Each structure stands twice: as C-alpha cells, then as structure tokens.
Amino acid sequence: MSFFKKIFTKEKKETLDKGLEKTSTSFLDKLGKAVAGKSKVDEDVLDNLEEVLVSSDVGVTTTLKVIDRIEARVAKDKYLGTDELNKILREEIAGLLSETNSGNATEFEIPKQDAPYVIMVVGVNGVGKTTTIGKLAHQFKSAGKTVVLGAADTFRAAAIDQLQIWADRTGVPLVRQEMGSDPASVAFDTLESAVTKNADVVIIDTAGRLHNKVNLMNELTKVKRVMQKVIPDAPHEVLLVLDGSTGQNAFEQAKQFTAATEVTSLAVTKLDGTAKGGVVIGISDQFQIPVKYIGVGEGIEDLQVFNKIEFVDSFFK
C-alpha cells in the first residue's frame, strides 16, 4: 500500500518494529480471537473489537470514535468481511493520528529563527524525562545544532546530577545551580548563556511534582515569564514526557499537566518494554496534542521522531 511507503532508514524501522513488538503481538492476537469463526463484521465483532481496543490502552473515548468510523463503513458498504478488518482498522487509526500529527518528519528538526529555539520539558519524576532530554541533546547535536541544557528541576539533587551526566556524555554545556535554587533563575541564566553562545537549541528541565497542581502551575508560569525577559517568545515548545508503559496512568498525567500549563507536544517513552503502545493513539487523539518523539529502546539512538505512517505500519506488523 503506497500510503505506508518506507521513509525511515532500515535501521530506524527495525528499531521501531522491535520496540513495538510486544504491543503489536498482543494487539493482533486479541484481534484474531475477536473475529475467530466470523466471516463478516457484525455487532458481535464490533463489541469484541471495542474490548480489544480498550484493553490495548487506546482509551474509551478514542475506541468509541474508531468503532463509529467502522460502523459507518459497514453501513456504507453493506457488507464488510472480517478479513478486511485489519486493513480498515489500520486506515482508521492512521486517519485519527493524521488529525493531530500533520507532518511526516523523520529527522530531528527545529524551525529556522534568529534566537535560540527553547524547549521546556515537563512531566512527573520517573517517566524518563531526564533521559529524554539527554537523548534529544544528542540527536540535535548529531544534526549539527549547538545545544545548551538548563537544570531547572532544582527540587531534587539527583535530577541535577543525572542531567550533568547526560551533558558530559553528549558533550553539551549544562547551566545549573544548587539544589533548592529558584528554577526561574536557572532558566534565565540558561537562556542568557545560550544567547551569548549563539546556540540553536535550549532544553530546560523542570520539576515533576504533581502533588499540588496550583504550585506546579505557578512555578511553570514563573519560569516562562522569566525566560521571556531574555527571549520574548520563549518557550517555543512545551514538551510533556509520558511513560507509555503505565497505560491509563499516562492519560491521567497528560490531564494534570495540560491543566497546569500549555503543552504543545508529547514524548512517549518506554514503549519497548510494554504491550501498552496503544496509549500513543489514545493520548494523541484525546488531547489533540501532537506526539513528537517516542522512546523505543534504552540506547542513545532509540529516541525517534514520531512518524504516524511508520508507527501504524509497525503497530500492525
């Protein structure tokens, strides 16, 4: 099918296939059982399909949307064989992802602009936020960009130290202060340093505390406001990192953070160790925020630019 033409490198595609292997195997096994003994898509098959999608962490809202679309096709075509269901599901899920994820990027890119491009990274502790920042720094640097990191999660000494390890590993400068320092002050210093160095990309880590949403909101708002004293339209991107292996819990985290600040893109991590990869489809659809990056392995190269065509292809492998 030409719609799913190969636009990743062979190595990237193999990594993506391997990373989504558990999700794909689990989903297709369930789908096979849902249509066993049936020759056409009827009410029973649709009920079973609904169960398959919900149990694959696609989420109830998105599942109902997919079922409605398939029902509409059944009504239009009058007859739909179960042998066609895989292909139709694939098309409908790709269509849903297309509504939020308009591009088909395969490389790590940033818009061309005069000032450094500022990415503020948010997410709860333990989702792979610092690792994602380190891998992003590596990818941007490999693409020929100059990168500056800012350790504005000053609530935990471990977060600052972990980011320092990644900065050393990737060979990019890190702006940091002592634990307990004002996060906005760190962000301000980072942007000043980036402007002085004429850097291309700035990535700012922020605290992952969700116990008090009002405090989190106030802190992130202050960080933004102070950054704008250096670069008036910063941050250019607010990237929410979610742990894909937590399934429905990732939906809850997305809900909390989108309420606390304006999230503009998503990174979904740890997809390689789970059968819950369907969460990518549900979160992208439900929150209408593009998934920009996915983590499909532990290696430094295993953070990939999310490409909806290749994702759906691997999902239905």
TrEMBL record:
Q: Known InterPro entries for this protein?
A: AAA+_ATPase, P-loop_NTPase, Signal_recog_particl_SRP54_hlx, SR_rcpt_FtsY, SRP/SRP_N, SRP54_GTPase_dom, SRP54_N_sf
Molecular function terms, GO-annotated: GTP binding; GTPase activity; signal recognition particle binding
Give the EC class as a word.
Answer: hydrolase
- Tell me where it resides: Cell membrane; Cytoplasm
Catalyzed reactions per annotation: GTP + H2O = GDP + phosphate + H(+)
Q: Which UniProt keywords apply?
A: Cell membrane, Cytoplasm, GTP-binding, Hydrolase, Membrane, Nucleotide-binding, Receptor
Q: Which Pfam families match?
A: SRP54 (PF00448), SRP54_N (PF02881)
Q: Where is the SRP54-type proteins GTP-binding domain?
A: 290-303
Detail which positions bind GTP.
Answer: 123-130, 205-209, 269-272
Q: What is its EC number?
A: 3.6.5.4
Where is the major localization of this protein? membrane
Q: What domain of life does the native source organism fall in?
A: Bacteria
Q: Which PROSITE patterns match?
A: SRP54 (PS00300)
Q: Name one GO cellular component term.
A: cytoplasm
The function of this protein is: Involved in targeting and insertion of nascent membrane proteins into the cytoplasmic membrane. Acts as a receptor for the complex formed by the signal recognition particle (SRP) and the ribosome-nascent chain (RNC).
Q: Which family does it belong to?
A: Belongs to the GTP-binding SRP family. FtsY subfamily.
Q: Quote the subunit structure annotation.
A: Part of the signal recognition particle protein translocation system, which is composed of SRP and FtsY.
Protein name as annotated = Signal recognition particle receptor FtsY
Q: Give the organism, scientific name.
A: Ulvibacter antarcticus
Q: Which gene encodes it?
A: ftsY
